[in-house]
Amino acid sequence: MEFEPKSIFLDMDGTILNHQNKVSIRTKEIIDVLRNQGIFVFVATGRAFGEIEELVPSGFQVDGFVTSNGMAGYVGDEVVFKHSLSRELVETVIKKAREHKVYYELFPYGTARTTLKQDQEYVEAEIRDPKPESVGINEWLSRKQAIKEGIAWKEQIEGNEFSKFYFFARTKEHINSWKNELEQLKKEIDFTMSVSSEHNVEVMVANVNKATGVQQMLNRFGLSESETLAIGDSDNDLPMLRLVNYAVAMKNAPDRIKEIADDVTDFTCDEDGVYYYLKSKFREIIL
């Protein structure tokens, strides 16, 4: 490729993660090769840091992680940056979610995601079989796993540091109605909303997104956006893709993502699209 990046940021869901929520060995191996050649490789994901280990192969390593859509950044065990939702916002949003019977997961830093016990019945009911046709299998499997073993059902909210809210609904009408409620609430308490599927929405601190997280990580390593390539597939990737010099959309991305990208992979996330793309574009240094 004419553009030779010094750093690469990779989204997870729909990008390096297939629809069974796994990163392939080949993707791990191509990342290892690039890093051995002196190229910095990072993950930039909407997922919380604690979710990542179970999704990647043994020995998976990158130079850093931007997590929760830019809310936190990690290099090894070092916390490079961290933003937190306010306790006031958390309590207000949970009360409104309960009124609208919206499935939610709150992600405190350092402990399991939380849903209050008083909301357990309607939250579990949203994940009843059969899977709605328009819900992606990866998102459905993640919710099944969360209900089964991921969520800590609590009597009350504990702690004061929270990386994000994740909301889900089985119908687009329900989640769109909830997004409208959040837009109204934003007039009272400022925050950022991010969407990665037609059935979800996430809430982070105001003016935080993947682009702000990528910038903070680049600063940590003395790198710049002009030296950076990023690969993604969804709306929550748009700030990151617009920020970097060279934006790549996955073949499985919607057209609105492909339209702003400089390139599109030849294969989907289920076909090891990132592996084949990086292998092709960096052929000269890999051989």
Mind explaining what this structure looks like?
This is HAD family hydrolase. Its EC number is 3.-.-.-, 3.1.3.-. GO terms for molecular function: hydrolase activity. Keywords: Coiled coil, Hydrolase. The protein is α/β, with parallel strands linked by helices. It has 2 domains: 7-83 and 209-286, 3-Layer(aba) Sandwich (Rossmann fold); 87-205, Hypothetical Protein, Haloacid Dehalogenase-like Hydrolase, Chain: A, domain 2 (2-Layer Sandwich), CATH 3.30.1240. Helix content is 34%, strand content 22%. The protein has helices at 25-36, 49-52, 87-99, 120-125, 137-150, 172-186, 210-221, 238-243, 255-258, 273-281, 283-286, and strands at residues 7-10, 40-44, 64-67, 72-75, 78-82, 103-108, 114-116, 152-154, 162-168, 191-194, 200-205, 228-232, 246-249, 263-264. The strands form 3 sheets. An 8-stranded mixed sheet has the order 5-4-3-2-1-12-13-14. A 4-stranded antiparallel sheet has the order 6-9-11-10. The chain has a two-stranded parallel sheet with strand order 7-8. Strand 1 (7-10), helix 1 and strand 2 form a beta-alpha-beta unit. Helix 1 runs parallel beside helix 10 (273-281). The longest helix is centred in the middle third of the chain and has 15 residues, at 172-186. The two termini are 15 Å apart. The mean pLDDT is 96.
Strand count:
14
Q: Tell me about the largest β-sheet.
A: 8 strands, mixed
Structural class: alpha/beta
Helix run count: 11
CATH architecture heading of the largest domain: 3-Layer(aba) Sandwich
CATH class of the largest domain: Alpha Beta
| CATH superfamily (homologous) name of the largest domain | HAD superfamily/HAD-like
Q: What is the overall shape? A: globular
Tell me the Rg in angstroms.
18 Å
CATH topology value of the largest domain: Rossmann fold
